[in-house]
């Protein structure tokens, strides 16, 4: 039941919604709706997992997470601009993209990690992970980022396809990255790597 | 490795080997030809020892007063020819392009004396511009025609259009605007339409259809040209096998039908394709699909003989396929005009046979043939005087043939059909033979040369990688390394030998291939077992992975035309990724080292500054024509242009540049304590003051002084700048080799001089960009030293990308149009002493970021506290980095070369791939030269500092 609610249900919803909203003009709206539905499902899971704790604390943390997620849109947006998105044109499109990325990366982290930037650095950059859930989260964040990064390349091609318009490839990239992360997590789970989690970091940056 | 070994191998591997490969490749890829600008004229004699020919009467040949040429771009022969069921292969279906030109096929069936369809053989390169040149001049155009003007593609050779213009008649044109570039002022009236947008199938055609009928009604012209582009565009987008092709051909068939009904009796209608297309719709190469175009001739009056004179019918003179050159002499003579001077074509005999009886027909044809032969001989002798492309042996054979033609013309009795036929056959043989010779000289890619050059480049890349990675790894020279050296030298010698010999024998090919295989397998073995790879395997982190991935991605992306067109975005994207990784790294460093809140500002701030500064470079980008819609930055405009539009923005721009210039020079002087040396600080100050004066003189109105002084008004300040700069460079080099302290002071003043010189040549607008480059390097050095040990591979690749990024950020693109010729006139007033100097100045203007980056690299490496081995010196690190950069550049050269090779029939090869290849090779040699100069300076300094004479200076 737990797996069904956290993993399978979001995937099915997303694919159904994505199928329903394939019209080009509605793609931005649909992305927002999908992101919000993801948010909704995550919130449900969050409240169910924390049902034993004090109500006030849970709600306060929930609001705190939402605020952090919304604030994270600003740096993500800036990074998109630094990578070549137009500064003044297509503001809404870029905003929708950064909103989606923020929902998919920052939001689950705020629900699971302590909301503290040091904690984020230690988990996301230095990979000081102590549980499989944390590993799943980090996999999700990285795979979404890498897929968004890679999906920028088709934009440059001169095929003149309607789906090459900014930011559709990147939006697709976020969801592809999310799906990939689920597959990777599944593989990692089935490999039973939990034994290997001795208290050491696996930093790529060292 | 030992230094003596290095001194021997490095120049061979980094200079001579790539040069050999590139020379071989370009000699096969860029066919060159010298254009003869002489125009045919009745007074130009044909043969000095044959005076009768001066009396050739061209009016005698006149058959038509008007010619309508409808060029249907990419009209392949089988688009027009009637295809029956039997001619198709078994099981094959009719294609969408079959049997839609009903007008033409019906005319041929119903009026065989008035209409005929030929296979129209194009000479490669089958590109529209080259084909138009060929169809009008009758020559074999190559991609690089050496003419007197480099800027415009205007045809300077004699052509049929020029002949009409000179005879006082009118030629009209409507269609593809390429013609207007080629003939800017010879048409009486033109309606050009842009040919750029391949996706637009109808604009050009609709324009031609609109303007043709009024032209046809007027009748005050001799030549009317209509150029349809629709078929070509359909091919490029959908390929020939598509229903749009059917619609297009049917539409054009309707046009031809209406033209046929409208033309008068003294008019010849010529419908022709300038080239064909492959099954994918491309063209440019030499397969039969590309070269076999269609040629259709029609006139309301019979033009073909009722019955061929029987002896001729069986001879090879009459043929159903016609070379594209042949249309030029034919139409010229039929209009009663002299044949264009540089025509290489032979006339189409059938059109000269329509006389009352066979004898008169044949004698008419023989006179026309003689004219043609003499004209061709005149052209070839002229050409062989200019260059040695045609061998003297071939010329001698041709001379014998023309002599026999002229002597038989003088001696034989031309009232006998057999004599006439023999004469005509002689002429045909002469024409065919010379055509073969010309084709072997001009109209072929030399695949052998290209592939040998390419294989030398691959070999070089492997050797370079090997040398670079093992540069300071061990002190013993293995036997294998010596073998490598000898192998490379022998390879060079072989390459040079091949360059000299024109034809390759089978044995040489075998030797080439086997030596290549042996040495390559050897090098690959050494690379696999080398220590560097093990080192790389051990230090897997985000930096090594990302730089490895990028150093693979960026050459591969050069195979795609869209990635070359948007290369500025691609490089910016990669550099921003590097910056982001640096940001993550510095955050994690902060976390592991201090976790102090006050320090997070520095660890976060500098990488973010890098990200935003890199985004700022977008302000300076210029646009390629393919990137439209896009606005070029105001920094790339000429100052006076900008001042005309708005004086305020010009003033603000120049103010910004002045402020940035002063701040940069003063900041760096302070940072490296240059002001300790009065000589340096005074001359640097005077340098930038003079540069500012130069900019201001451009902005201010001309002073009312004497005209001879006016030239000095613009040139005095740059000239003094050059003098002071040379003086300063000499002083600092001398100081570097004499004094054993203050390396950074002398060296940084040298760098500053180079930077100021680049500022002067780059101009006032882009100086801001160069200042941004220095600022960027300063912040980068801070970030890198904060991040601790980074792999040198990463730093080298970062610098290499930075060079390209700032190449775009000083408003250049990899196109021919973006060369700024005005840079050659800084300090000179149109009276340049030599082309070499002009090339040098333009080169600095274009490649200033590369030169500056190479110069500033040792300073950059001095400031970062790199955690390489403690016993490495500055010279070692800079040398390794430089060689890494050269390796990356060489791999880019290799890939652009391969891209040009693979895409040699691509639509965009001459707009995108070939210029990219040329630029990359030039960049490689700019890098080589600047690295050589800077290395020798640093090396001299290192000799002083370390008395033992090793390649070392201890880092300060």
Automatic annotation (TrEMBL), chain A:
Keywords per UniProt: Endoplasmic reticulum, GPI-anchor biosynthesis, Membrane, Transmembrane, Transmembrane helix
Membrane topology term: Multi-pass membrane protein
A Pfam short name: PIG-F
Residue ranges of coiled coil: none
UniProt keyword Metal-binding, yes or no: no
Gene Ontology biological-process annotations: GPI anchor biosynthetic process
Signal peptide from the UniProt entry: none
Subcellular location(s) of the protein: Endoplasmic reticulum membrane
Record-linked InterPro entries: GPI_biosynthesis_protein_Pig-F (IPR009580)
GO CC annotations on file: endoplasmic reticulum membrane
Record pathway: Glycolipid biosynthesis; glycosylphosphatidylinositol-anchor biosynthesis
Recorded superkingdom: Eukaryota
Transmembrane segments: 20-41, 62-88, 94-117, 137-157, 172-191
Protein name in UniProt: Phosphatidylinositol-glycan biosynthesis class F protein
Automatic annotation (TrEMBL), chain B:
Pathway: Glycolipid biosynthesis; glycosylphosphatidylinositol-anchor biosynthesis
Domain of life where this protein originates: Eukaryota
GO BP, sorted A to Z: GPI anchor biosynthetic process
One Pfam family linked to the record: Phosphodiest
Main location: endoplasmic reticulum
InterPro entries: Alkaline_phosphatase_core_sf, Phosphodiest/P_Trfase, PIG-O_N, PIGO/GPI13
Keywords: Endoplasmic reticulum, Glycoprotein, GPI-anchor biosynthesis, Membrane, Transferase, Transmembrane, Transmembrane helix
Record-annotated membrane-spanning stretches: 12-32, 450-467, 483-501, 508-528, 540-561, 598-616, 650-668, 680-700, 712-734, 754-776, 783-808, 835-861, 882-902, 922-939
Ranges in a coiled coil: none
Localization annotation: Endoplasmic reticulum membrane
Bilayer topology term: Multi-pass membrane protein
Gene Ontology molecular-function annotations: mannose-ethanolamine phosphotransferase activity
GO cellular component term of the entry, any: endoplasmic reticulum membrane
CDD domains the UniProt entry points to: GPI_EPT_3 (cd16023)
Homology family: Belongs to the PIGG/PIGN/PIGO family. PIGO subfamily.
Official protein name in the record: GPI ethanolamine phosphate transferase 3
């Amino acid at each position: 039941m737990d797996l069904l609610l956290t993993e399978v249900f979001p995937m099915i919803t997303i694919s159904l919604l994505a199928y329903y909203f394939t019209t080009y003009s509605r793609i931005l709206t649909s992305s927002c709706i999908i992101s919000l539905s993801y948010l909704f499902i995550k919130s449900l899971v969050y409240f169910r997992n924390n049902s034993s704790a004090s109500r006030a604390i849970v709600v306060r943390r929930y609001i705190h997470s939402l605020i952090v997620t919304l604030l994270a849109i600003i740096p993500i947006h800036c990074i998109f601009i630094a990578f070549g998105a137009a500064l003044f044109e297509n503001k809404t499109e870029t905003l929708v993209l950064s909103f989606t990325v923020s929902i998919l990366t920052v939001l689950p982290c705020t629900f699971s990690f302590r909301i503290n930037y040091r904690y984020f650095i230690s988990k996301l950059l230095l990979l000081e992970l102590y549980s499989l859930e944390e590993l799943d989260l980090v996999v999700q964040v990285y795979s979404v980022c890498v897929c968004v990064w890679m999906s920028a390349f088709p934009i440059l091609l001169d095929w003149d396809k309607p789906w090459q318009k900014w930011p559709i490839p990147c939006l697709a990239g976020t969801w592809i990255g999310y799906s990939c992360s689920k597959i990777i997590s599944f593989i990692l789970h089935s490999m039973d790597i939990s034994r290997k989690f001795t208290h050491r970091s696996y930093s790529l940056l060292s | 490795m030992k230094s003596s070994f290095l001194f021997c191998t490095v120049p061979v591997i980094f200079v001579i080997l790539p040069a050999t490969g590139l020379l071989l490749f370009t000699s096969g890829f860029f066919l060159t030809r010298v254009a003869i600008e002489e125009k045919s004229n009745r007074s130009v004699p044909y043969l000095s020892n044959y005076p009768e020919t001066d009396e050739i009467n061209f009016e005698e040949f006149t058959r038509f007063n008007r010619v309508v040429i409808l060029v249907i771009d990419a009209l392949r022969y089988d688009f027009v020819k009637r295809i029956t069921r039997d001619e198709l292969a078994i099981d094959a279906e009719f294609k969408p392009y079959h049997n839609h030109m009903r007008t033409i096929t019906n005319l041929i069936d119903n009026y065989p004396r008035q209409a005929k369809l030929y296979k129209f053989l194009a000479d490669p390169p089958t590109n529209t511009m080259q084909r138009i040149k060929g169809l009008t001049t009758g020559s074999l155009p190559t991609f690089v025609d050496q003419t007197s003007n480099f800027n415009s593609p205007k045809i300077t050779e004699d052509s049929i259009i020029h002949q009409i213009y000179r005879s006082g008649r009118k030629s009209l044109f409507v269609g593809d605007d390429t013609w207007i570039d080629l003939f800017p002022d010879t048409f009486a009236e033109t309606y050009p339409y842009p040919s750029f947008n391949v996706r637009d199938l109808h604009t050009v055609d609709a324009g031609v259809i609109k303007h043709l009928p009024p032209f046809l009604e007027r009748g005050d012209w001799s030549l009317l040209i209509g150029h349809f582009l629709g078929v070509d565009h359909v091919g490029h987008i959908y390929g020939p096998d598509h229903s749009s092709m059917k619609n297009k051909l049917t539409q054009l068939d309707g046009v031809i039908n209406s033209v046929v009904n409208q033309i008068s009796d003294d008019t010849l209608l010529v419908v022709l394709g300038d080239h064909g297309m492959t099954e994918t719709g491309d063209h440019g190469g030499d397969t039969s699909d590309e070269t076999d175009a269609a040629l259709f001739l029609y006139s309301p009056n019979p033009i073909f003989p009722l019955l061929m004179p029987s002896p001729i019918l069986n001879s090879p003179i009459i043929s159903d396929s016609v070379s594209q050159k042949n249309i030029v002499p034919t139409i010229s003579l039929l209009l009663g005009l002299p044949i264009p001077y540089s025509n290489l074509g032979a006339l189409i005999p059938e059109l000269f046979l329509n006389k009352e009886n066979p004898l008169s027909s044949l004698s008419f044809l023989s006179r026309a043939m003689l004219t043609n032969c003499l004209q061709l001989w005149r052209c070839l002798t002229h050409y062989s005087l200019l260059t040695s492309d045609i061998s003297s042996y071939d010329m001698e054979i041709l001379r014998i043939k023309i002599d026999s033609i002229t002597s038989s013309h003088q001696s034989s009795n031309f009232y006998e059909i057999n004599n006439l036929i023999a004469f005509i056959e002689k002429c045909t043989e002469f024409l065919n033979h010379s055509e073969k010779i010309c084709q072997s000289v001009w109209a072929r890619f030399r695949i052998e040369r290209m592939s040998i050059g390419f294989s030398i480049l691959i070999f070089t890349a492997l050797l370079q990688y090997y040398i670079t990675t093992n540069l300071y790894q061990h002190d013993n020279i293995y036997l294998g390394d010596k073998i490598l050296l000898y192998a490379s030298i022998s390879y060079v010698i072989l390459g040079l030998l091949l360059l000299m010999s024109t034809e390759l024998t089978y044995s040489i090919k075998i030797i080439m291939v086997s030596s290549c295989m042996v040495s390559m397998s050897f090098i690959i073995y050494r690379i696999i077992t080398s220590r560097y790879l093990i080192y790389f395997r051990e230090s897997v982190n985000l930096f090594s992975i990302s730089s490895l991935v990028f150093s693979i991605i960026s050459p591969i992306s050069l195979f795609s035309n869209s990635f070359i067109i948007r290369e500025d975005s691609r490089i910016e994207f990669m550099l921003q990724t590097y910056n982001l990784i640096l940001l993550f790294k510095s955050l994690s460093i902060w976390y592991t080292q201090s976790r102090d809140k006050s320090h997070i500002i520095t660890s976060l701030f500098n990488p973010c500054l890098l990200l935003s500064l890199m985004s700022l470079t977008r302000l300076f980008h210029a646009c390629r024509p393919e990137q439209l819609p896009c606005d070029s930055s105001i920094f790339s405009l000429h100052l006076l242009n900008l001042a005309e539009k708005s004086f305020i923005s010009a003033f603000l721009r120049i103010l910004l540049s002045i402020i940035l210039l002063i701040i940069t020079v003063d900041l760096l002087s302070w940072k490296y304590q240059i002001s300790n040396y009065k000589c340096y600080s005074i001359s640097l100050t005077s340098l930038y003051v003079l540069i500012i004066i130069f900019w201001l003189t451009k902005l201010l109105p001309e002073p009312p002084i004497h005209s001879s002084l006016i030239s000095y008004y613009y040139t005095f300040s740059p000239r003094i700048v050059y003098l002071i700069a040379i003086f300063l460079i000499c002083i600092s080099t001398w100081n570097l080799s004499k004094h054993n302290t203050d390396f950074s002071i002398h060296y940084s003043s040298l760098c500053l001089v180079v930077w100021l010189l680049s500022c002067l040549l780059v101009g006032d607008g882009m100086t801001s960009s160069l200042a941004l480059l220095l600022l960027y390097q300063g912040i980068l050095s801070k970030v890198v030293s904060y991040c601790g040990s980074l792999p040198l591979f990463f730093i080298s690749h970062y610098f290499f990308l930075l060079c390209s990024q700032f190449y775009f950020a000083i408003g250049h693109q990899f196109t021919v149009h973006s060369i700024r010729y005005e840079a050659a006139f800084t300090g000179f007033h149109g009276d340049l002493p030599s082309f070499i100097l002009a090339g040098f100045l333009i080169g600095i203007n274009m490649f200033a970021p590369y030169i500056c980056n190479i110069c500033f690299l040792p300073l950059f490496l001095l400031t970062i506290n790199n955690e390489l081995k403690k016993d490495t010196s500055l010279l070692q690190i800079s040398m390794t980095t430089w060689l890494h950069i050269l390796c990356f550049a060489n791999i880019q050269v290799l890939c652009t070369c391969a891209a040009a090779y693979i895409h040699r029939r691509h639509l965009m090869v001459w707009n995108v791939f070939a210029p990219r290849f040329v630029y990359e090779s030039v960049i490689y040699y700019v890098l080589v030269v600047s690295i050589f100069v800077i290395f020798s300076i640093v090396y001299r300094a290192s000799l002083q500092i370390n008395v033992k004479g090793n390649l070392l200076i201890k880092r300060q």
